[in-house]
């Protein structure tokens, strides 16, 4: 099987799993406990006391409707990427809702609202994060901010925030202020889970910039003891007006204390700048040097 086809199949499988996890969080924790949250789920929960329509039906109808809105305004390419979610999410949502209603006793999933908010928010975030990892969209309320961004050029993050805020305000009108505050917790936990899923499996390391007159001794230690490569940058002091070499090296988190100790041992006045890196690709991190 060609590599491209294999990767496409893997991405589709991950999108399907992501939608299943998303639907699981909604049907098991969010809907039974009337937890306000972002997206279509939050709108459906907020509108239920007003329109008296089952939230599952509202979510399914709006998911399909927004898919066609995205197709109309964002093009066929976007529609194809979102099609899997548009089909799978309503299907999983309806199937899981049927299982919950028929296979479990009434009120089986009713629990403390804060507990439901925590687990529901995390599961929803994990599901959406899996979908985003594949470069796909979960559809639904992702689409209005994308459409507005295309025509207004307002930053996408701002439009998403406005959308979620309006959803919470809708919840205030129907469920009260406290329920809306609980909904904010759900949205926050979802965003954290999305971020964690996007960096899942990434190699977290430390990127170090070292400025010292005794840089050659430090290079020897880094190369021979830590087995890390370095890059020498040419720096120019703004205050001293002197040219000085700057060592740039990426080390694992375990290696950083060793590096810091050695650098300060060689030169107590060395200037060290350290930043966290979420992902590193290259020799010594994602692959090892082959012996021939």
Automatic annotation (TrEMBL):
Q: How does it sit in the membrane?
A: Multi-pass membrane protein
Q: What is its main location?
A: membrane
Chain segments annotated as transmembrane: 12-31, 57-75, 82-101, 113-132, 153-173, 179-203
Q: Which domain of life is it from?
A: Bacteria
Q: What CDD domains does this protein map onto?
A: YitT_C (cd16380)
- InterPro entries linked to this entry: DUF2179, N-reg_PII/ATP_PRibTrfase_C, UPF0750_membrane, YitT
Stretches assigned to the DUF2179 domain: 228-282
Record keywords: Cell membrane, Membrane, Transmembrane, Transmembrane helix
Q: Where in the cell is it found?
A: Cell membrane
What's the short name of a Pfam family annotated to this entry?
A: YitT_membrane
Protein's recorded name? YitT family protein
Source organism of the structure: Amedibacillus dolichus
The lineage is: Bacteria, Bacillati, Bacillota, Erysipelotrichia, Erysipelotrichales
